[in-house]
């Protein structure tokens, strides 16, 4: 297929067909907070209709910064603007009888419900999976909680940093001689959203494949998602009995680690994994550049992992490579390393990423209208590309209660009744 003028053009013909999202026609209710709003966004960006169900006062994400122009306001939250792009919003009080009735009517039309209440809260409202699926047998309900729906920690309160810690990732972050350092940006919740999206899609696909209503309840534990996202730390312990340690700022082997350059830092891996493959090329690079002392790196002990791990080897390599590195920019080092097929990469700042040539070539960053201010925001774009069902954000994030009236009208709730519900605090 060749994409042309927003459509798919069949080769050898002049017929065009509109490009639609992979999940067009899928209906999703997103009643989650930080734990699941990225999950809802992933469905929206693939064409699903996603309705954000917000409590009175709005989603808790609206109160999280950073804020546009550093001015806190529920309509200026940049995380909310990004994670809820393309969704419609209804303000609904699920602690009221009429609010729950409206919610059930929305569920009856939905394929997927994403929620993140503490275990037992939805059941206390009569909105648990058993209750909802009785009248909506097609429903896939995905619950994202810190520790799952059952177990000794199920009723514990938690924040992102707690699940990072109990999932093990916090232990690996930071410097050996200091306290652990958390990764920025609610990484535990974002990981859980991704796991939840995959599990939800599997359940939805199973229903389609069986050609019969086959609702399922997906139980996502954020703690378990962190454990599963810890690269190879679990496997090291399982297979070798080795407990990984945090080692930021320390080189595990000579020629492997962070080095200063003319405009920042680069990560280089002359030694370490596949050192026999990369070491000779790295040394030859330094010799070609006439770097003082480079000939010392040709001695046979530099091919021995035990020697590379010594302080002597680390200091000697650094004394040779660092002066060379300081005379060149990140871009120069990266380009030459690529040309020589050596693993070296710039350590980028946010500003660097906006100017990154590879990301620019892929059109990775895109423009998103900010609904409340009318300004355009530059945000991350497609994490994957499909030729016939392209990824795209379907519009800006909603203002609080922006679509409440429209959604209620779709449920045949008359304007007069909506006014009564608004005054009673059932809707917003």
Query: Biggest sheet, in brief?
Result: 6 strands, parallel
Mean pLDDT: 90
Strand order of the largest sheet: 6-5-4-7-8-9
Report the C-alpha radius of gyration, rounded: 26 Å
CATH architecture of the largest domain: 3-Layer(aba) Sandwich
Coarse morphology: elongated
CATH superfamily of the largest domain, by name, is Crotonobetainyl-coa:carnitine coa-transferase, domain 1
Coarse structural class = alpha/beta
Tell me the β content. 15-25%
Number of domains: 2
Beginning-to-end CA distance, first to last residue: 45 Å
Name the descriptors.
single chain; 428 residues; alpha/beta; Rossmann fold; formyl-coa transferase, domain 3; six-stranded parallel sheet; elongated
Q: Would you write up a description of this structure?
A:
- The protein is built from 18 helices and 14 strands.
- It is elongated and about 85 Å long.
- The protein starts with a strand and ends in a 5-residue tail after the last helix.
- The N terminus is likely disordered.
């Amino acid at each position: 297929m060749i994409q042309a003028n927003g459509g798919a053009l069949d080769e050898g013909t002049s017929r065009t067909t509109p490009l639609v999202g992979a999940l067009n026609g899928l209906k999703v209710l997103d009643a989650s907070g930080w734990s699941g709003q990225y999950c809802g966004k992933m469905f929206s960006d693939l064409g699903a209709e996603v309705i954000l169900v917000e409590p009175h006062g709005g989603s808790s994400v609206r109160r999280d910064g950073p804020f546009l122009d550093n001015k806190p306001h529920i309509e200026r939250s940049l995380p909310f603007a990004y994670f809820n792009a393309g969704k419609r919003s209804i303000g609904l009080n699920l602690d009221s009888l009429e609010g729950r009735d409206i919610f059930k009517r929305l569920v009856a039309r939905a394929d997927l419900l994403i929620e993140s209440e503490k275990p037992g809260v939805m059941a206390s409202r009569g909105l648990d999976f058993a209750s909802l699926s009785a009248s909506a047998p097609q429903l896939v309900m995905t619950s994202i909680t810190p520790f799952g729906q059952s177990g000794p920690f199920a009723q514990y309160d938690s924040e992102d940093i707690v699940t990072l810690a109990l999932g093990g990732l916090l232990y690996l972050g930071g410097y050996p001689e200091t306290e652990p350092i958390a990764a920025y940006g609610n990484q535990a919740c974002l990981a859980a959203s991704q796991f939840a999206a995959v599990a939800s899609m599997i359940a939805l696909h199973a229903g389609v494949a069986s050609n019969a209503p086959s609702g399922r309840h997906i139980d996502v534990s954020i703690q378990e998602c962190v454990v599963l996202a810890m690269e190879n730390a679990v496997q090291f312990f399982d297979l070798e009995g080795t407990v990984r340690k945090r080692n930021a700022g320390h080189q595990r082997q000579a020629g492997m680690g962070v080095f200063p350059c003319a405009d920042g830092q680069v990560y280089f891996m002359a030694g370490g994994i596949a050192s026999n493959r990369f070491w000779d090329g790295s040394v030859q690079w330094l010799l070609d550049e006439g770097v003082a002392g480079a000939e010392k790196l040709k001695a046979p002990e530099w091919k021995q992992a035990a020697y590379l791990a010594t302080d002597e080897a680390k200091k000697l390599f650094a004394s040779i490579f660092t002066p060379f590195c300081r005379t060149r920019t990140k871009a120069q080092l990266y380009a030459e390393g690529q040309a020589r097929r050596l693993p070296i990469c710039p350590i980028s700042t946010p500003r660097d990423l906006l100017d990154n040539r590879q990301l620019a070539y892929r059109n990775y960053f895109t423009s998103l209208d900010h609904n409340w201010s009318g300004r355009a925001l530059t945000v991350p774009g497609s994490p994957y590309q499909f030729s016939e069902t392209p990824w795209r954000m379907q519009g800006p994030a909603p203002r609080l209660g922006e679509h409440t009236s429209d959604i209620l009208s779709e449920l045949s709730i008359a304007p007069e009744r909506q006014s009564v519900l608004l005054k009673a605090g059932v809707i917003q």
